[in-house]
Design goal:
Structural class: alpha/beta
Distance between the termini: 36 Å
Order of helices and strands: HEEEHEHHEHEEHEHH
Shape: globular
Strand order of the largest sheet: 1-2-4-3-5-6-7-8
Helix content: 25-40%
Largest sheet: 8 strands, mixed
Number of domains: 1
Length: 259
Amino acid sequence: MKILLPFLLMLAFSCAHQSQNITYKAEGKTFNGYLAKPRFNNEKRPAVIVVHEWWGQNEYARMRADMLAKEGYVALALDMYGNGEVVEDPKSAGKLAGSVYSNMKSAEKRFAEAMKLLKSQPEVDADKIAAIGYCFGGAMVLHMARAGMDLDGVISYHGNLKPQNGLVAKKGKVKAKVLAFNGAADPFVPKEEVAGFKKEMKLASVDYRFIDYKGALHAFTNQESDATGKKWNLPVAYDERADQDSWAKSLVFLRETLR
């Protein structure tokens, strides 16, 4: 029995979460989500929305949802494009992301429907919802905070910091606490954009924290970034230190914000 106990504990941990693909509707269009949740569920759980990079809701976004489920959260990796569309080349990704950026009211409706789906899950405490996003997804969750969405907290990882469609944070409108992780060497987020973001947050009296990682480039949390950068000649790279530190700080933020 002593020999079996460690194995059984390891097996229980490895099976401690479950996941499923799930579809939902927004604006008459079908969207494909990925729902991950703790397997042993005896009480309502806080929940987290995961917004993908500009490639679409791919394996990376689903991996982050799984990681959150293992931490005890119900996580939904949503689909901002529709029909689960995923691309691999920057030109196609830029076109898809651009279509969303050009109509942020539509983006808000898509996000709101995904949040409605997540809140409807029987395991979810609908009063405790956060959102995290990567690159394109980071810009999305910051916009949803600016729009006054009913979120307790949002986390942006190497996301665009500037307001979309002129929607600037207003005092009293932003309900969410904000945590933004940035690569200090990211050419896609110039220093003036960082300064503007900080000024905007302060003027709106947002409870926010901004963390800059020295030497880190764009997409520093994604281990595939080195290969992506070489393949497409993009200034992106994985940074293990920044990835691990940002995740550890995110778990603290979520615990304090949702629990």
